[in-house]
Write a structure and sequence with these properties.
By secondary structure, the protein is of the alpha/beta class. It has helices at about 20-25, 45-50, 65-75, 90-100, 115-125, 140-145, 170-180, 235-245, 255-265, 265-290, 310-320, 340-355; strands at about 30-35, 85, 105-110, 125-130, 150-155, 185-190, 215-220, 230-235, 295, 300-305, 325, 325-330, 330-335. Helices cover about 40% and strands about 15% of the residues. The chain is globular, with a radius of gyration of 20 Å. It binds pyridoxal-5'-phosphate.
Length: about 350
């Protein structure tokens, strides 16, 4: 059949192994999954309470997600017209690619970064310009140089997945000033809530000055609602109106909208999770320093160990056989910060595994 040629160069997304798969394969009782940056503490208890009061399942959800929009607008101090909701951020990435990219256009991003930017760009037949990270960080100079008259979208992942590094305010600002005003700059802030750096940019304040920014956030990570699929974009009303044309009519479910509103209403839960995450990161840094394991400092809820080549697969495999699911990349291993005891146990495991390789 005559499907788009470029699909032959892509694979369907393969998520990390599931807990049941690993249990069966290695005959284990306990598995700890630290592969997808989910919140190890789940979500606010208010979510369960709210969704049991949900209205009829027989009627369509509110496609415009008006109540959720109101709640998020108030939370962020933006106008309702500046928001678009999606079935996870994944769908918003698809919406942007569909709205902006086509054959003859190009799009600029880092490598490694979140895989879906590239995936959807290729489906739309756009040229993908990947600029290698430097020390785990976006090479903004290289990215600015890669932009030309056919560039439609630039993707910034801040903090970056999988390395956890971040772009500081001044650096981002000088980059934004270099990008032509008709090029869309997507700033993916999926881990926004976890950031503790003082010089992390508050991008919402930049929207007035730069109308070509789309900020992306999600309820999947710190809010602990990955199963519900709710992400959103913040941008100029003109841009949002156009992206809404591409959005499916009922892309966020009624339950998901209800869950997100309830989660937003419990800031104490998020604060507690952030403190625990920051403590977990500090413990990992201490351990890596002691063991001389190279890593990047992270502003997210995961940490990236900088190992290379076959070593990556070997470490991944040995952890898997002991019941630890982490995520392997070509240049390292990404570990989600889990509960305190799990982190400690994993460090013990790593201590045994990594020195053997040195
Ligand atoms: C997890 C993640 C997303 C997608 O999250 P959704 O669950 O689809 O909302 C998008 N961008 C980055 C950088 C992520 O890590």
């Amino acid at each position: 059949m005559n499907v788009k040629e470029q699909l032959f160069s892509l694979k369907a997304y393969t998520p990390g192994k599931t807990i049941d798969e690993v249990k069966k394969a290695y005959n284990l009782d306990k598995i700890v999954k630290l592969a997808s940056n989910e919140n190890p503490y789940g979500c606010s208890p208010r979510v369960l309470e709210a969704i049991t009061k949900s209205p009829s399942f027989a009627v369509y959800p509110d496609g415009a997600a008006i109540q959720l929009k109101d709640a998020v607008a108030e939370h962020l101090g933006v106008k309702e017209e500046q928001l678009i909701f999606s079935s996870g951020l994944d769908e918003l990435i698809q919406i942007v690619a569909r709205a902006m990219l086509s054959e003859g256009s190009n799009t600029v991003m880092a490598n490694e970064t979140f895989s879906q930017y590239r995936h959807h760009a290729i489906i739309e037949n756009a040229e993908v310009r990947e600029i290698p990270l430097i020390e785990g960080c976006h090479d903004l100079k290289g990215m600015a140089e890669a932009i030309d008259g056919n560039t439609k979208v630039v993707w910034i992942c801040n903090p970056n997945n999988p390395t956890g590094t971040y772009i500081a305010k001044d650096e981002l600002l000088s980059f934004l000033q270099k990008v032509p005003s008709d090029v869309l700059i997507v700033i993916d802030e999926a881990y926004y809530e976890y950031v503790t750096a003082n010089d992390y940019p508050q991008t919402i304040t930049l929207l007035e000055q730069f109308e070509n920014i789309l900020i992306m956030r999600t309820f999947s990570k710190a809010y602990g609602l990955a199963a519900f699929r709710v992400g959103y974009g913040i941008g100029s009303p003109e841009l949002i109106k156009l992206l809404d044309v591409v959005r499916l009519p009922f892309n966020t479910s009624a339950l998901a909208q209800t869950a997100a509103i309830a989660a937003l209403d419990d800031p104490e839960f998020i604060e507690e999770c952030i403190i625990r995450n920051t403590n977990g990161l500090e413990k990992y840094y201490e351990f890596f320093d002691q063991q001389h394991i190279p890593y990047y400092r992270s502003q997210a809820n995961f940490v990236f160990i900088n190992v290379h080549g076959t070593e990556t697969q070997e470490i991944f495999q040995r952890l898997l056989e002991k019941g630890w699911i982490v995520r392997a990349f070509p240049n390292g291993i990404r570990i989600t910060i889990g509960k305190e005891q799990d982190n400690e146990n994993l460090m013990k495991e790593l201590k045994e595994i990594i020195p053997i390789k040195q």
